[in-house]
Amino acid sequence: MTDISPSDVRPGQRGTASEAVRSSLSRRNRQQLVLQGFGIAAIFFAITMLLILLTSLISTGYHAFTQTQIELEVYVDPEEIPAENLPRGGFREALAAALGVHFPEIDLSDRAATRELTSILSNGAQFQLRDAVVADPSLIGQTITLSVPVSDPYDQLNKGLVDRATPEQIRRVDDAAIARFDRLEELGLISAPLNTGLLTNADSRFPELAGLKGALVGSFWALLTCFVISFPLGIGAAIYLEEFAPKNRWSDLIEININNLAAVPSVVFGLLALAVFIGWFGLPRSAPFVGGLTLALMTMPTIIIATRAALKAVPPSIREAALGVGASKHQVVFQHVLPLAMPGILTGTIIGLAQALGETAPLLLIGMNAFITSAASSPFDSATALPTQIFIWADSPERGFVSRTSAAILVLLTFLIFMNAIAIYLRNKFERKW
Q1: Quick one: pLDDT at residue 83?
Q2: Residue 1 has pLDDT above 60, yes or no
Q3: Which of 15, 36, 91, 201 is an S-S bond match for 126, by CB 3.0 to 4.6 Å?
């Protein structure tokens, strides 16, 4: 609709024209206010949903960043743990004896009573004592102070996740177990330090021992493989298509397919990797190398599109000036255009890698959700990744894995925020204004 200008009408019609202008102006102002209202509401809704998500994750996951431990004075009995029999020995019996000191009414010769008493200790406590003695055999015959983790039910009890008011028959720990735990707490033997094992331990069937080290190492190898393959190939393909390829129907077809590949669901790439990399090439299943190849297929279209956009953003005057002083096409591209486009290329690459870090479906299809209790030492060893580890823990029935799942999501979000922050920093630092 064309607005009426007072200069376009005869003097007798100016009053009508002015009213029409004022009416149009007020209507446009109302439309602008409505549009602004919708924009503010959308932003408020997005921020609210983000706060709800973060609040839910933090309120559930912060419990996993601490681990309840019990401090024991353990006598390493040479008769139970002989030096010539290491690493075998009665390490669990030594822990039971150290714990029984605080419960003299319990007969440690009664196996059922001893088993009930030691249920407060994590299954990994005996291995922690074993590793300490194996590392220093001179500890045999001495009394050492050792802080060991408690089992998951008592960890949940200490963190207030077990309601003591719940009827005993449906509670994870009975009244006698709670009384024993309270006695140890009164003696000052219970503590809840920072759970460094969340990042330094690999996966475990026991929540109090499970950590993300294996997933972090697996994600590192997979992303490294993805970067080494997708970065040079993606940039090379983009440079050729943008600077050297003839503009014809074939190049248009390739461009359309690259744009389509960027929108293909990730599960399709997982099926492709399962059929080609594992089925045809016989590469090892659950290996980060295969995961990296799969993520490279997903990331390459994003890098190509981002690189072409960065190359297009370089003003034509740069190319013309370089050609004017006698530079070849190759020199123009690699010595003048590419350095100026590199900030945009790096930004697109980092964003593509951040997207690949959070992918789950393709890694599940190639088997990177196996139960792995040690970190991979090479890209060809079996491993998990951060998103698949979250999937494994979320599917576990153990109550302790609920908080660890939320904590793992927070760790993954931290890495994603860090990678996006690097992309923003590179763009702001090296961006050129034309």
Answers
A1: 84
A2: no
A3: 91
